[in-house]
Amino acid sequence: MKLRIKGNSIRLRITPSEMKRLLDAGRIDETVYFAADENARLTYALELAPVVSAITVRWAPQQVAIVLSSEEARRWAGSLDVGLYGQMNTPRGPMELAVEKDFACLDKSDAENLDTFPNPRKGSIC
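Given the sequence above, the corresponding structure tokens read:
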């Protein structure tokens, strides 16, 4: 799972195997360690919830999770849609949220594109 934080926005990109794990287990996560201290870490996660009406964020110390509707995630997984998008209000303004399928890069080899979604632009001329 890839995490991008820019300004007041968070974007996650997930691979097909991560999508399967998410649908099977209801949660996938990764942890980034910033120093030798065990507490110098951030865990980022993608979670499913049966009763959530919109994409949202759940924050706890050293952890941030984007939460999706289980039903919406299952629909998205079986569709050609690139991602799920939304906003969450914060005291400092809206936070933009995106969860996207990780597509194969057009300029990388097949080996470098393992476990990616087929790029819809493959074969097109740029």
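The radius of gyration is 16 Å. Try to locate this feature in the token string yourself.
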